[in-house]
Structure formats: C-alpha cells, structure tokens
Design goal:
mainly alpha; about 475 residues; Growth Hormone, Chain: A; about 0% strand; single chain
Length: about 475
Amino acid sequence: MSSEATPGSERRGLGRTFANVFTANLASSLGDGIARTAAPLLAARLTDDPVLIAGLAALAMLPWLLFALPSGILVDRMDRRHALALAASVRTVLAVGLLALVWTDALTIWWLYLLIFVYGACETLYDGAIRAVVPSVVPKKKLSRANARIEGAELVVQNFAAAPLTSALFAVAVLIPLGLLGAAYGLAVVLAVLLPQVASGRQFRGAAATSGRPAQPDAADASDEQGAPRASTSALSAPPAEPFRRQLVDGWRFIMANRQLRTLWFFTTATGLLYAASSATLVLFVLQTLAIPEAAFGLFLLSGAVGGLIGSVVASRLQGRFGLGAIMAAMNLIAGAATLVMGMWSVAAVGVIGFAVASGSVTIWNILMMSYRQAIVPGRLLGRVHGTWRTLLWGSMPLGSVIGGAIALVDLRLPWIIGGGLMTLLALMFYRFLMGLPNPEDIDNGDEPPPVTDALPAVGSGTPPGQPTADR
C-alpha cells in the first residue's frame, strides 16, 4: 500500500488530529514529570535506608519485564483511545490515593512501593498505546517529525517544568504537587476520550479481517533476506477470537521473521545494556570523580535534558537531509564515543559536554528508531511488537546496572570506559548495517495511509463500514 501523502497534505503540517494526540500526551507527560520527582522526595521523607530508596528505581522498571507483553496485546485488542483513558484513569485514582495517604499521615514506604509498581504497570499500557496511535494519524514521511515533537515536549514538560515546579511546591506543601498530579492525569483521561475515531486502531484490525491474510507469519515474506524494506504483508494478523495466551508470542515471531528488525533488536538491546552499565553509578561519578558539588548535580542533569531537547529539534531535519540509516549509524557511534570520552578525560567540563552530546545522540536515535518500527510493523501488531521489544530491551537494563555497579567498585571511571568502548566497537561493527536502514516512507507494511486532511469522515455510534463488529 502506498504511504505517500498527497501534495496538498504537505501544507497542513502534522494536522489537527495529531495536535489532539500531542495535547493528550502532554497532559500525561506533566503527570509523569510530577510523579517521577515526587516519588523519591517522598521516599526520602519516609526512610534514609539507601537500599529501600534504590528499590523504587527497581520497582519502576519491573513492570516492563512483567507487563509489557500483556499490555501490548491489550493495545492491539482494545480501542487505543480506551487503552489511553484506562491507563490515565487508574493513575488518577493512584494520585488521589497517594494524596489521601499523605493527608492522613498514613503513607509508608511499603504503600509507596505498591503505588509505584501499579503506576509502572499502567505506564506500560499507556506508552504502548500512544506509540501505536501516532502512525494512525501521521503519514510515514512525517513519523520522525511527529515523534520528535512528542519526545521534545516530554523533555521540556518533565525536565524544565514539572521537576523544578514539583521540587519548589514540595517545600511549600506536599499536598499541592500531589493535587496537581491527580489533575494532570484526570485531564489526560478527558483528552484521550475525546480523540477522534481514526486514533482507535480499528481500521488496522478491519483491514486484517477483510484482506484474507493468514493468521500466522509467512517467514519467507517477512524475512527480507534481500534487504528490501518491505514488512510482511501476510504476517500475523490477530483475529479477535484468538486466545490471549497465543498472542503472547506474536511480537516475537514477527521480529524474528524479519532480518533487519531481528538484527536491530539484538543490537539495540546490547547497546542499551552497555549504556545502563556505564551510567549505573552516575551520581557517584559526578560528585566524586568529576568533583561537581552536590548543589550543582541538578544542573549537570539539566545539560543532558538540553542535549536531548536539541536532538529532538534536529532529528527529523537530519533524517530528511541524510537519510534515517546514515543518521542512526552516526548517532550510535557518537553516543558511544561521548561515553568513552567521559570516562577517559574525567573533568567537569568534559563530563558536562559529553553528557549533553550523548543524551542528544540517544534522543535522535530513539526518535528515528521509533519511526522505523512504526513504519515497518503493521498497525494491527504495533502493541505486541512494541511490548516484545521493550521486554527484552528494558528488561536487560537492570542487569546492565548491576554489572556497572560491580565494575565501579574498582574505579568509578571504568564503567564509562568499558561501556563506552564496547558501544563504540559495536557501532563500528554494525555501521554498514545501520546505514542500510530505509526511510519510513520507503517501507510498505501493507497498511493504508492515514487521512491526509483534517476533515475526518463522520462516524456514528455504530461500527464503521468494513470494520469488525467487536472490538476485543
């Protein structure tokens, strides 16, 4: 199927529908920023045990290992607007519950653990749904631009607005930022419910049901041994009646059947593990090795946010000029080299610049990686493939952190030197492979392009023509 937009659509930017999705995600991002700042501050008031406080970070990542796959299946079976609203609704209830516990002075570290764990489980559903909605409303040629907008807005809201605002309000009254937390997620619920029909994802399930494609992947079609950027058009449609347990392996089978996607998945996981190992003891590296005062640690982290923001601004422009593959290959190499330099020349100025460069490079990589996956994976499988991808990638990061912490016992610079060195070596080894990755608009995953104008067809309360009658 062609994914090219008509010439007239180019003048409309990303469109009103994407603006609605963007605004809904902005409200949720504000809540995320408040939650991620408030949680450690609350934990510090409840205990001074470093093991218990460190457990918060582990509990925040654990749901990705346990729930990313089931959440991905739900994203593909549900109306994706409902998935967004459900995740935001539960987080609104959690925020109100946290507010009540603080108000009544009943909050304990164990209550906070429980809230963080459930919050993380909801995040797996929301993240999978919002990433699946974007290709429903944006043509492939503009995916990088749309993802850059989302990434940049999240960085600004969470790092430049929510974090300092929450910290300041915490000093005045703890209940104020917690009240804002509930209000932000409540607004996200309303905006998710108001998203237009095209964001539901039903059109992909309808196309799969009426196209006569088999339910299982055709390895010959998806393996792409000639390197052509075509995803499987006969791969893995998930009939609504298919048992939940069988869909657990759909994402794995689709990834493994496509040579490019399979190689990229394992490469990205290895790189992510190494980066996690490098940065596991970041706070000690900054305070002790770089000799940056504790009061300035926030400014050091801000340099990474600035680098990430710049990366989000230039990502789509770089892709448009040089191509997705060339930029991904270059950014991966730059991130590894910057990490290595931080360990080898451990002075404050080099550390700040290196951290900003590495963060910017990783941001550009993430934007283009997401755009590539959204283009190559059929819309009906986006949730399952996204969940499978992040189960391995994010599930391996705690292991990287443990390895990095063990290496840091010898010298705080060693994780950066070893991790950065291996990242650079991997980047050089796979440079040619990454250079060959196609632009999103050159990939045909079998999906029809989204509407090219802001005038969406009116849809009544019934089922759209050609769509399945049940949204399961």
